[in-house]
From TrEMBL:
Name under which the protein is recorded: Oxidized purine nucleoside triphosphate hydrolase
Main location: cytoplasm
Taxonomic lineage of the native organism: Eukaryota, Fungi, Fungi incertae sedis, Mucoromycota, Mortierellomycotina
Any one GO molecular function term: 8-oxo-7,8-dihydroguanosine triphosphate pyrophosphatase activity
Biological function: Oxidized purine nucleoside triphosphate hydrolase which is a prominent sanitizer of the oxidized nucleotide pool. Catalyzes the hydrolysis of 2-oxo-dATP (2-hydroxy-dATP) into 2-oxo-dAMP. Also has a significant hydrolase activity toward 2-oxo-ATP, 8-oxo-dGTP and 8-oxo-dATP. Through the hydrolysis of oxidized purine nucleoside triphosphates, prevents their incorporation into DNA and the subsequent transversions A:T to C:G and G:C to T:A. Also catalyzes the hydrolysis of methylated purine nucleoside triphosphate preventing their integration into DNA.
């Protein structure tokens, strides 16, 4: 497990928009960057000076074109992602929203689409989503999860000759991630993305939502 030890983490957000009446969920097809070619909720890095929730609302607006009021978006859980041989983990704050304003719009990064909840394309999503997304949909939140990923071997490529996954995230603004990755994105992309989940642990129905995770993989504090 030494190969999964982290010494730092990056905070990212993920917003799941749900139409309870129609039993539908809004997902976006990620056209480029980290998690390209997978369906996902909307989110990204939190910028300096903004709260995690404000970051989540901003990313939803940027990626899906819609607005949610701060009081109508709720923290559902925190997921801590470990990537083998990467000292930087990802602390992903997951939110749920049942109402929104504005017109859903495609952008250069994401193509939004509604899916029936009974028909979520888990085989084209990050592998961990089938573990925690039903928890959110079944209202067994707040939750806390930790997921360990190994890089998938890539045919004809040196999959391990990679710099920090998350250091690529930090440079994603300056340069397209595709150009920095040893794994060519596109047709050769392995199913569910370039990482295979190796281990996971999820705690459900917590008394309140986690606010922060510790580097050792426990909950450091809860939302008040
Ligand atoms: N559903 C799901 N989402 C994940 C997983 N891992 C992971 O980073 N994400 C999400 C969280 C973030 O929304 C996004 C990663 O952040 P990012 O900063 O690369 O997002 P981005 O490419 O949109 O970049 P930016 O907008 O911040 O510039 O991917 C996962 O295992 N499952």
């Amino acid at each position: 497990m030494d190969s999964f030890q982290i010494t730092a983490k990056k905070v990212v957000t993920l917003v799941m928009v749900i139409d309870k009446e129609q039993r539908k969920i809004l997902l976006g097809y990620k056209k480029r960057g980290f998690g390209a070619h997978l369906w996902n909720g909307f989110g990204g890095k939190v910028e300096p000076g903004e709260t995690v929730k404000d970051g989540a609302i901003r990313e939803l607006k940027e990626e899906a074109g819609i607005t949610v009021k701060p009081e109508l978006i709720q923290k559902a859980g925190v997921l801590l992602f470990f990537f083998e041989h990467d000292p930087v983990g990802l602390e992903c704050h997951v939110y749920k929203a049942y109402e929104y304003e504005g017109q859903i719009q495609e952008c250069d990064e994401m193509r939004p689409q509604w899916f029936d909840i009974a028909d979520i394309p888990y085989d084209q999503m990050w592998e961990d989503d089938k573990i925690w997304l039903p928890t959110l949909l079944n209202e067994q939140d707040p939750f806390f999860g930790k997921m360990h990923f190994k890089r998938k071997p890539v045919e004809g490529g040196d999959a391990m000759a990679t710099a920090s996954t998350t250091s690529k995230l930090s440079t994603a603004v300056a340069a397209p991630v595709e150009s920095m990755s040893p794994t060519p994105f596109g047709a050769a992309q392995p199913k569910n993305g370039p990482y295979a989940m190796f281990m996971h642990h999820v705690e459900r129905n917590l008394p309140s939502a986690p606010k922060e995770a510790s580097l050792d993989g426990s909950i450091a504090s809860f939302e008040s």
